[in-house]
Amino acid sequence: MKADARGTTASSAKTKGSASRPKNNERFRERLARHHDELRWLYMELYDNGDMFAELCEQLRAFFDARPADLKQLDAEREAEGAWYRKRDMLGMQMYIDNFAGTIKGVEEHLDYLKRCHVNYVHLMPFLDTPADKSRSDGGYAVADFRRVRPDLGTMDDLAHLARTCHAQGISLCMDFVMNHTSEDHEWARRARAGEGEYMSRYFFERNQAVIDQYTRDVPQVFPTTAPGHYTYLPELGQSVMTQFYPYQWDLNYRNPRVFNEMMYNFLYLANQGMDIIRIDAVPYIWKELGTNCRNLPQVHTIVRMMRMIGEIVCPGIVLLGEVVMEPKEVAPYFGTPEKPECHMLYNVTTMATTWHTVATRDTRLLRRQMEAVCALPRTYTFLNYLRCHDDIGWGLDYPTLSAWGMEEVPHKKYLNDYFLGIVAGSDSRGALYNDDPTTGDARFCGTTASMCGVEAAGFEGDDDKLAWALQKDIMLHAYLLTQSGLPIIYSGDEVGQVNDYSYRDDPERADDSRYIHRGKFPWELVDAIDDADSVPHRLFEALSDLEDIRREEPVFGAEATVRVCDAADPALLWIERTLGEEVLVAVFNFSDEGKTVTLPAAPAYTDLVTGVTEAVETVDMCGWDFMWMKRA
Ligand code: GLC
Fold first, then answer.
1. How far is CA 37 from CA 43, 44, 58, 81, 147, in A?
2. How many CB atoms lie within 10 A of CB 74?
3. Ligand 1, atom 4: closest residue by C-alpha
C-alpha cells in the first residue's frame, strides 16, 4: 500500500525491523511509562473501557514503529532543544495550496519564494479530501477522508515529499486537523446515513424534537445566517443529525471511544507524513452536553490533554496549535498547566480583533488592556499572532469595558462594520460583511489587510497620497505584529499587498460565503513587481523584509523578554517596552492620522532599529500611522 509508506492504519499496523530497534524500544517504553498512568486514568474516566485503551496503546506502538527515521531524529533534536517553535527567527505564512501554486508539487517548486519572504513555518490550508462542490466543503474543513489528499492537489506521497524537502531547508509545516466533524461524504457518515448502527453511534442522531429545541435554546449559533440551527433532518432516516457548523458537517460523538481512538490514529498518521504543527480546528466544540452551551466543557480539556500525551509518546517533535476562538478567559486554559500541558500554542484572537477595533476608533485604550492581560500570563505561553487569516473577523471585544466608555455592543459592532465597509467618513477600507444576523445585530467582517488599510480604494481612485497613507498603515500594523512575543504569521498575499477578490460573488458555489473575498488566487504578477521601486509590492515587501530581519537579529524580540504596555497619555499611541537583560526596546505606534511628538525615557542614546542610526535623542516626531523601534544604546 503506497499511501501507507510513512504511516499505518489501524487494520494494517506493520512493524519494521531495524538495527536501532533496541534503542527505539527503550525510547518508546520510556515515553509511554512517563505518561501511562495519567493517560489511562483520563481515558478510563471518560470511557471506562480497558479493551479500547489497550488497543490505543498497541496502536501508539505501531505508529511509533512506522514513524520514519528522519522524523524520529527530528523529534530527538526538538526534545533536546525544547520549545523550538518559540524562537524569534520563526516567521509563519498561511496559504491555500491551489491559490498559491496549484498543487503540493507546485508549493515545493516555490519554496525559494517562501525563503525570500523569510518564512520558515508554512500553514497549508485544508488539503484533505473534501467534496469538490465548494458549497459543501467549507473551504476544505468538511473532511471526507483523513488519509487522502484532495486529488487535484496531489497525493499523500507528494505531501510527505514536500515535508522532507521543507525540513531539509529548515521549514516546518502546519496542517489543520478537523476534529469536531466530518463531511457528510466521509465513509462513517455515508454508512450512518445508510442506517448502520455502528456508524450512527459515531455521530449524534436525534428523533426527539424537545432535545433539538433545547439545543437551539442553549447553544449559540456558529453560522446564524449561512447555516442556522444545530441539527439537520435526514428524511431517509426520519431523524436529525447534529451539525453545529454547516449542515454537511456532522459533529463527531467523542463519547464513543471508537471515535476518539480512530481520530487519534488519523492524527498520528498525519504526523507521520512529516507534519510539524497540528492545528486542532474548532476544539472548544468537541464535547456536547445537553443543558450546557456545549463550549469548552471539561471533557474537551481531558481530550486535548490525552492528545498532547499521545503526541509526546509517539512524535514529541510536533506542536499542537489550538484554534480557540473564544473570549479571553476561555482561551488560556487550553495551555493546560505546567505539569499537565495541553496545547503548545494558541491563536491570539482577541488581540487581533482588538487591533482592528483600534484602527477604526484610533483609541488604543482597549488594546492596551488586552495586551496587558496577555503580558500578565506566564511567559511560557506561546501565542500565534496575526492580522488576518482565512476566516472573518468576529468582533469578540471586551464590551463591559467598552460600554463603560460609552461604546455599546450592538451600535459599536455596526460602527466597526461600517468603518471597514468604507461607509464612515475618513475610512478607505473595503470588504464585506459575514453572517449578518439581523436578530442580534451581529455581523462579522471579511477583507484582506491591504484592502482594509485602504490600498484597494487608493489604487482604484489612482490617488497616490491615499496610497502612501494606506501603505504606511499596513507597514505599521506589521511592525506592531512583529513587536509581539510569539509566532507572527503573515497571511499569504499580504506581503505584496493583495487586495480583495470579488469573483466569489459570481460563483454559485461560493457566493454565500464572503470569506472567499480574502481567499483569492495568489497574485504572482505582484511578486514580479517587487523589483520595481515605485510599485506597491516593492514598498510593502521591502519594508516587511527589513522589519523581519531586525526581529531575527535583535535578541530583545525573543520570547524570554519582559513586555510592558506603557500608559502613553495620548490614547492614539500604543507604547510597548520590551526588556531583555540590559536591552530595552521602546516601540511606539501611532493609530491616528495626526502627527505626534513623543518624548522618550531619558537615556544617553538610542538606536533607531529601522534606520540603524544611533544618537542622543529626547523626542521623536511621528507622522500619522507611523511607528518607531528605538533601542536604548
Ligand atoms: C474553523 C475554521 C473555519 C471553519 C470552521 C469549521 O473555525 O477556521 O474556516 O469554517 O472551523 O470547520
1. 10, 10, 15, 26, 30
2. 20
3. 141
Ligand 1 atom 11: the closest Cα is on which residue?
282
Averaged over successive runs of 10 residues, the pLDDT of the chain (633 residues) comes to 41 48 87 98 98 98 97 96 94 98 98 98 98 97 98 98 98 98 98 98 97 93 86 96 97 98 98 98 96 96 98 98 92 96 97 98 97 93 97 96 96 97 96 90 95 97 96 98 98 98 97 97 98 96 98 97 93 98 98 97 97 97 98 96
Q: From residue 524, how far is each of 113, 137, 357, 520, 527 by CA, in Å?
A: 10, 26, 31, 12, 5
Whole-number Å distance, alpha carbon 570 to ligand 1 midpoint, is 38
Give, as one character, the DSSP assignment of residue 279: E
Alpha carbons 101 and 439: distance in angstroms, whole number: 41
What residue has cell string 488539503? Answer: 127
Distance 251 CA to ligand 1 centre (A): 13
How many A from CA of 8 to the centre of ligand 1?
27
> What is the position in ligand 1's atom list of the atom closest to the CA of 246?
6
CA 245 to ligand 1: nearest atom: 6
Q: Coil, helix or strand for 490? A: strand
pLDDT digits over 127-178, tens only? 999 999 999 999 999 999 999 999 999 999 999 999 999 999 999 999 999 9
**Cβ pair 274, 167 in contact under 8 A:** yes
Q: Is the dihedral of CA 483, 389, 429, 572 positive or negative?
A: negative
Under DSSP, is residue 574 helix (H, G, I), strand (E, B) or coil?
strand
Environment class of 595 (CB within 10 Å of its CB; exposed 0-12, middle 13-18, buried 19+): exposed
DSSP state of 203: B
Q: Which residues surround ligand 1 with Cβ inside 6 Å?
A: 138-139, 141, 178, 245, 281-282, 323, 390-391
Ligand 1 nearest atom to the CA of residue 180, by list position: 12
How close is the Cα of 308 to the center of ligand 1, in Å? Answer: 21
Instruction: Specify burial of residue 406 (Cβ count, 10 A radius: 0-12, 13-18, 19+).
Output: exposed
Decide: pTM greater than 0.90: yes
Instruction: For residue 245, report the distance from its CA to the centre of ligand 1, in Å.
Output: 8
CA 204 to chain centre: 27
Give the ligand 1 atom nearest the CA of 142: 12
**Ligand 1 centroid vs 111 CA: distance in angstroms?**
27
CA of 180 to the centre of ligand 1 (A): 10
Nearest protein Cα to ligand 1, atom 12: 141
Report how far residue 553's alpha carbon sits from residue 262's, in angstroms, rounded to the nearest whole number. 44
| Residues in the chain, total | 633
| Phi–psi pair at 604, nearest 5 degrees | -60, -40
